Amino acid sequence: MSALGVAGFRQLRNAGTNVRPDRPSTALVIGGIYCYSRNPLYTSMGFAGIALAVASLRTIAFLVPALVIVRYGVTTREKAYLEREFGDDYRHFRTAVRRSL
Q1: Which residues have CB under 8 Å from 48's CB, separation 6+?
Q2: Helices (H), the chain
Q3: Of 6, 55, 93, 97, which is most buried, counting CB atoms within 10 Å of its CB?
Q4: What is the pTM of this model?
Q5: Residue 18: what are its φ and ψ, rounded to 5°?
Q6: Neighbours of 47 (CB within 10 A)
């Protein structure tokens, strides 16, 4: 995991909310690395995948579908959930901070 991912992970843990996307969020984290990216953990995974893919064409064959699944299968549902859970606070956060770096 990159420094970006570690920073995002630590901030979620320090806020006392779940890191796993399949568990409920108890806090909306908007400081630190989250001032620059709404999804630093997913962005970190993408960067790591790209780094691996550079060394192997086989890896890139798995990376592209994985990134599409994360984008449309995870973050889209997560965005809807956070909007229901945190309302205007999340809507403001979403308009102020880009999705990824």
Answers
A1: 1, 2, 5
A2: 3-14, 40-55, 57-69, 76-96
A3: 93
A4: 0.72
A5: -70, 140
A6: 16
